[in-house]
């Protein structure tokens, strides 16, 4: 165990997001202890000096702060509160940051359970996708005790360039749900209008080039069409459709609880559910963009070289763009 000024860091969940985030913690010089249900996923980290722990309990016993990056609440609950879970090994004053996105009530109950043994739970959902996890360009929105956030802010900054303290427990999740719900709803509105233009006879590349110059387009809203929609490539997921479904469902449920009408979000959720029913749960979350195209009998597919040519003369804002990657489409439509 190290001083809390130089905390030993535990990381549980080494998937698409977790592995590069843990690697960035290690590169920043923190002593790292890792666990995943698949031992082999930890090998790159162990070979670089990380310690493997056979259970979440052991992670907690060896570290000062633990980060869980798991698919959802059921997995977090098992890792946190199971017989060999984090709760069984965590010491008073230590902290668990949950990086996943789930129901606000769940993280509040987890916070209460850990408080009984003098430990802390903070919700810390992330935004930035797989590329952001690799480059460290992540937003991390944190809810919980501010003093605990401040104590471990340097660790958060090793994973993401924009950690932000949001307030009491659950506040980070509220921000994430609002962000993801707005993102999915905006995407639905943009694509619906774009499909109308293509159906009316506009060339998709020229239409996209034109609307980028409109009032909204100058804010680069439509650059969200670059990587999947225009090339027609949805099978190399940055974030799975199942994740978008979970987040928008949670956001609309929260809205119903609060009596807030969410017309566009409900329509967006209906489209996501339709795509899920087709077996697209592991495709990229933007695969839902295919549904409006199918309804009117068109298919957008632009040569990535043509897209790059447009961008070479009119670059996107922020320098975040990477050339489109065309995934193998397999048997999907």
Describe the model:
This protein is an alpha/beta fold and 333 residues long. The protein folds into two domains: 9-168, NAD(P)-binding Rossmann-like Domain (Rossmann fold); 175-319, N-(1-d-carboxylethyl)-l-norvaline Dehydrogenase, domain 2. It is built from 15 helices and nine strands. It has helices at residues 18-27, 43-47, 56-62, 73-81, 86-89, 104-115, 129-135, 146-151, 153-159, 171-199, 204-211, 241-258, 263-277, 290-296, 304-313; strands spanning 9-12, 32-35, 51-52, 65-68, 95-98, 120-123, 126-127, 139-143, 162-167. Strands 3-2-1-4-5-6 form a six-stranded parallel sheet, with helices on both faces. It has a three-stranded mixed sheet with strand order 7-8-9. Strand 5, helix 6 (104-115) and strand 6 (120-123) form a beta-alpha-beta unit. Helix 10 (171-199) crosses helix 12 (241-258), helix 10 packs across helix 13 (263-277) and helix 12 packs antiparallel against helix 13 (263-277). The longest helix is centred in the middle third of the chain and has 29 residues, at 171-199. It is elongated and about 65 Å long. The model is unreliable at 323-333 (pLDDT under 50).
Which helices and strands, and how do they pair?
Layout: E1 9-12, H1 18-27, E2 32-35, H2 43-47, E3 51-52, H3 56-62, E4 65-68, H4 73-81, H5 86-89, E5 95-98, H6 104-115, E6 120-123, E7 126-127, H7 129-135, E8 139-143, H8 146-151, H9 153-159, E9 162-167, H10 171-199, H11 204-211, H12 241-258, H13 263-277, H14 290-296, H15 304-313
């Amino acid at each position: 165990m190290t001083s809390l000024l130089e905390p030993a860091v535990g990381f549980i969940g080494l998937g698409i997001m977790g592995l590069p985030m843990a690697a960035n913690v290690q590169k920043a010089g923190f002593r790292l202890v890792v666990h995943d249900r698949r031992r082999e996923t930890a090998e790159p980290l162990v070979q670089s000096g990380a310690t493997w722990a056979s259970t979440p309990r052991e992670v907690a016993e060896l570290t000062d702060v633990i980060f869980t990056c798991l698919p959802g609440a059921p997995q977090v609950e098992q890792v946190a509160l199971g017989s060999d879970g984090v709760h069984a090994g965590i010491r008073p004053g230590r902290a668990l940051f949950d990086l996943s996105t789930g129901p606000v009530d769940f993280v509040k109950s987890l916070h209460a359970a850990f408080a009984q043994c003098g430990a802390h739970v903070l919700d810390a959902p992330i935004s930035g996708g797989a590329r952001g996890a690799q480059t460290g360009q992540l937003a991390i929105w944190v809810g919980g005790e501010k003093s605990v956030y401040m104590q471990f802010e340097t660790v958060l900054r090793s994973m993401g360039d924009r950690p932000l303290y949001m307030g009491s427990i659950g506040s980070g999740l509220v921000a994430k749900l609002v962000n993801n719900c707005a993102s999915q709803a905006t995407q639905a509105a943009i694509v619906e209008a774009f499909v109308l233009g293509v159906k009316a006879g506009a060339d998709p590349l020229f239409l996209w080039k034109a609307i980028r110059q409109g009032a909204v387009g100058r804010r680069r809203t439509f650059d969200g069409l670059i990587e999947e929609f225009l090339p027609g490539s949805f099978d190399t997921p940055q974030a799975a459709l199942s994740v978008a479904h979970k987040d928008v469902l949670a956001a609309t449920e929260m809205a119903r609880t609060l009596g807030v009408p969410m017309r566009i979000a409900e329509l967006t959720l209906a489209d996501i559910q339709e795509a899920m029913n087709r077996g697209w749960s592991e495709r990229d979350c933007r695969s839902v963009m295919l549904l409006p195209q199918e309804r009117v009998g068109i298919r957008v597919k632009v040569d990535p070289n043509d897209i790059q040519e447009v961008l070479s003369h009119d670059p996107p804002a922020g320098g975040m763009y990477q050339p489109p990657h065309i995934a193998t489409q397999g048997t999907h439509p």
